[in-house]
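Hi everyone, sorry if this is the wrong subforum. Our group has a chain we'd like a structural model of before ordering constructs, and none of us has done structure prediction before. Sequence below.
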Amino acid sequence: MIEKVIHFRNLNHAYRQVVANKGAAGVDGMKVTGLARHLEANKDRLLEAIRSGSYLPEAIRGVEIPKANGRKRLPGVPAVTERLLQQAVHQVMAPLFEAEFRDGSYGFRPGRNAQQAVLKAQGFINEGYCPVADIDLENFFDEVDHCLLLQLLYRKVKCPLTLRLI
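Answer:
Right subforum, don't worry. Here is the predicted structure as tokens:
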């Protein structure tokens, strides 16, 4: 699977996605506009490190974003190279898991959004069904058992190098 992740076409598509998403620089200070030059100079070394299992990601830059309720959200900003690799992994793995989602699931799914979920819920209400559940998994990845999560991933992803990259 790792060869699909780091295949030229997959990485090229991931590169275009990362550039289109823009975003802030990570701890290395590299902006998205510097990614092409960075890859030209370091692509072979990066791919070899991934293939050998010696690749180590950069640290995550923490930022505080104020929320409407007065609290703060603390998202991490990965380095641009990490965002490229995350996107490349996502593009290969998403189809493996997408088929298992229920039709009524709308969160973080391709071609689906919150407005569609609301319209679907309104339709159910108009048909007389009650109640409607709205679940927000706030802080999910802060609380989830990562060993369990990796075990679930391993059921579909048998490639140790891909799992290491994840």
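For your construct planning: DSSP finds eight helices and four strands in the chain. The CA atoms of residues 124 and 130 lie 8 Å apart.
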